[in-house]
Amino acid sequence: MEKRQRIKYLISDTLSAMLAWALLFLFRKLALEHTGFTDAAHFFNDSNLWLGLILVPAGWLSLYAIQGSYRNVLRRARLTELLDTLLASLIGVVAIFFLLLVDDHISTYRNYYASFLFLFVVHFTLTYIPRLIITSHTVRAVHARRLGFPTVMIGSGPRALQTYNDLESQETYSGNLFIGYIDPTPNQSQTSALYTIMPSLGSLEDLRSVAKQHNMEEVIIALEPDQRDLLQQILLAINSCGDIIIKITPDARDLSVGAIHQRSIFHSPFIVINNRLMPEWQYSLKRIFDIIISLLALIILSPVYLITAIIVKATSPGPVFYAQERIGYHGKPFKMHKFRSMYVDAEQAGPALSKDNDPRITPFGRFMRKVRLDEIPQFYNVLRGTMSLVGPRPERQFYIDQIVKRAPEYLLLQRIKPGITSWGQVRYGYASTVDEMVERLRYDLLYLDNMTLSTDLKILLYTVIIIIQGRGK
Is the CB of residue 364 less than 8 Å from the CB of residue 312? Predict the structure, then answer.
């Protein structure tokens, strides 16, 4: 359903952009160049018209994608659609004006203003009306209960039952399609207030498998007053399930301190936790930046790759590259690639962290680690999308299990992609013990709270300084 909806938006936006561009061409011929309809028909022979019909829509679609218009398309609100389309239209028309129209030969500057205003009004109107129709049709389908979002209730007592009844009886249906509930206090399912209403899905340990099996999109946490101390444990469990919308039933304290930000007067009040740590456009630019830098690095550093590979092969027997399974975004395992800096079979006795003067590290490997040369094959991981340039360092499951026992908040790092470099790497360096991993964790949690493109840029700059000075730990 979501894929089909996204295709509708893409087709609508493409046709709207093409028509707006063609109408601008016709407007300039008739109103600004004062040609007659006969001569105006010759505009079909203008190569700029046909080139624009290809490139201009592509530019608009790219802008919309960066803005996040094609994400969560089944949840778009009509007011949000209006504001997003207005903003995108203004940015896009300004870009077209300066890139394509500013060098035109004109008789008066009023022609510039007329072209700008015409394109803005026409493009916005042609784009917003079809979007409004598509969005309104989806909203009506949700309100009519023809469309819903798979939801799990965490809670089983009177408050969970009341929350369910409130959602089912509210004037406009919110779209929560309950697939079952999870009892935060195990072995009480038979006495649950929800037992006869929806199926029990097990305990918190089963949440991840439930999310995958049922394509869970929302979680509603409705705890009893004596269960509020379980909230952090529940949030950590949800964290590894993907981009799940989390709603928490508020108590009197939450209401009194203004923690509730209600957007609809008909819907039940919830504390909503947004798993997206940055605006959508920053996520898009972060990914674009990752791709561009990784491609440039793979091309520009190709001689370095070759020389390093030769030295690694010549100085110690074994493969040039070392691939190791790490845990990444939302707890998914992936293969991280590095230049081999240790002797072959360095972990025959089991997983072990490197430390100062580690005899398992080759002489050239010690140099590579100082200047982070062993890390550069990870640009391949960034290009594939399993890593980012900046993000918490990925660890092996063996060590994650040990860290989580002491610092459960480590799982919060799985909300974002791991990175080649990080705040923790810059401030602390490599960790040689689990104690040091836990200590380094606070810097990575700081990154989560301050995650922006400008923060990424600062971390990258400091990483370059560390590499140049050879201060890698």
Answer: yes
Domain limits, the chain: 2-143, 149-273, 280-469
Q: Identify the helix (H) or strand (E) that includes residue 226.
A: none
What torsion, rounded to 10 degrees, do the Cα atoms 420, 423, 429, 432 define? Answer: -90
User: Residue 273: beta bridge partners?
Assistant: 246
pLDDT per residue as tens digits for the range 37-75: 555 556 667 777 888 899 999 999 999 999 999 988 988
Helix, strand, coil % over all residues of the chain, rounded to 5 = 60, 10, 30
Q: Which residue has the tokens 């108590």?
A: 251
> CATH fold of 149-273, please?
Rossmann fold (3.40.50)
Classify residue 263 by burial, with Cβ atoms within 10 Å: 0-12, 13-18, 19+: exposed
Residue 160, both tokens: 């969970």
Burial letters 173-195, b for 16+ CB under 10 A, else e: bbbbbbbbbbbbbeeebeebbbe
pLDDT digits (tens, 9 = 90+) for 338-357: 999 888 887 776 777 777 77
Element of type H or E holding 245: strand 245-248
pLDDT-derived band at 380 (thresholds 50, 70, 90) equals very high
Point out which residues pair with 388 in neighbouring strands. Answer: 419
- The distance from CA 196 to its chain's CA centroid, rounded to whole angstroms, is 38
What is the SS3 assignment for 68-80?
CCCCCHHHCCHHH
Helix (H, G, I), strand (E, B) or coil at 6: helix
Beta carbons of 432 and 399 less than 8 angstroms apart = no
Any residues with CB less than 8 A from the CB of 461 and at least 6 apart, and which? none
Residue 27 or 38, more confident: 27
> Is the pLDDT assigned to residue 249 strictly greater than 50?
yes
Separation CA 276–CA 273 (nearest Å):
9
Q: Please say whether the beta carbons of 194 and 153 come within 8 A.
A: yes
Residue-by-residue DSSP string for 340-369: --B-TTTTTTS-----TT-TTB-HHHHHHH
Exposure of 65 by Cβ count < 10 A (0-12 exposed, 13-18 middle, 19+ buried)?
middle
> Residue 154: enclosing H or E segment and its boundaries?
strand 149-154
The one-letter code for the residue type at 90 is L
| C-alpha angle 184-160-71 in degrees, rounded to nearest 5 | 85
Contact between 387 and 340 (Cβ < 8 Å): no
**Six-digit token pair at 133?**
């129709």
Residue with tokens 């869970």: 216
CB burial string 309-332: b at 16+ within 10 A, e below: bebbeeebeeeeebeeebbbbbee
Do residues 269 and 260 lie in contact, with contact meaning Cβ atoms separated by under 8 Å? yes
